[in-house]
Specification:
311 residues; alpha+beta
Length: 311
Amino acid sequence: MLEAGIRGEQSVAVTAENTAKTMGSGTLDVFATPALVALAEKTCWMSVAAALDEEESARIESDDGRLLVVVDVPIVDVDDGTDVYATLPIGIVMTEDCIVTVCTREMPLISDFATGRVKGFWTYKKTRFVLQLLYRNAVSFLSYLRQIDRSSLRFEKEMYKSMRNKEMIQLLRIEKSLVYFSTSLKANEVVLEKLMRQELIKRYPDDEDLLEDVIIENKQAIEMCNIYSNVLSATMEALGSLISNNLNIVMKALTSITLVISVPTLIASLWGMNVGGIPLSDNPHGFLIMCLISLMLALIAVVMLWRRKMF
């Protein structure tokens, strides 16, 4: 877990671009204060980010009165004009004096509290604040799952109309997102169950009810994720069968057309040989007669194929 006294080191060369004279913070050719502050912030961020990478597993640890809770939170990115859902770990460090949240990127989960979108919380009530963060996280999973369901329905309707690879790829991305969500929710469930079973943090009666609500919301998210995943898997299989069936229909129609065309082609080939004794070769209406014969035979072939439901 994150320990007190973490040290980090970053260096930067002083050039004309980061001097006080160039950046407007002074008149001397020395390292500018804004550049120094930016370097200090980068050093702090790099030092903490190394302790919480994107593959960090959800867990809970306690040591000397300090508590570390690592849970996965949902995120959404835009790739090629469409939303791509994934998860990232966020660390919540609770000490006797403060609460610290650590993540590799800015999260809406924390921004909602900072901007006042979430009402009725107080940071001095550390236990309740941590539980409210976990509750808000579970609600975020449910919200993203509803968005995923709406997106899958939209792509499914487009698949029935176009059968393009683009919609199939989008459904595959959604299926992958559901796998990420399912894995993260189950890992978060283990953390919540451990919080319920063990007295790792001091809880009041209201906190007990809030923790139960968090567990219920997380279980609901797991059930929704499993349902959507099963439905999407069945849809993908049905779409695969539908695409194969459509391909068979097209191939059957093309084969039937080829058979019909081959009848006049065969007749034209026989009567087009440059040899003597060709029937109707001396008849002035021979070409018209052969065209009529070819058309009649082609129609007979069409009727026979139609009765066999080849069209």
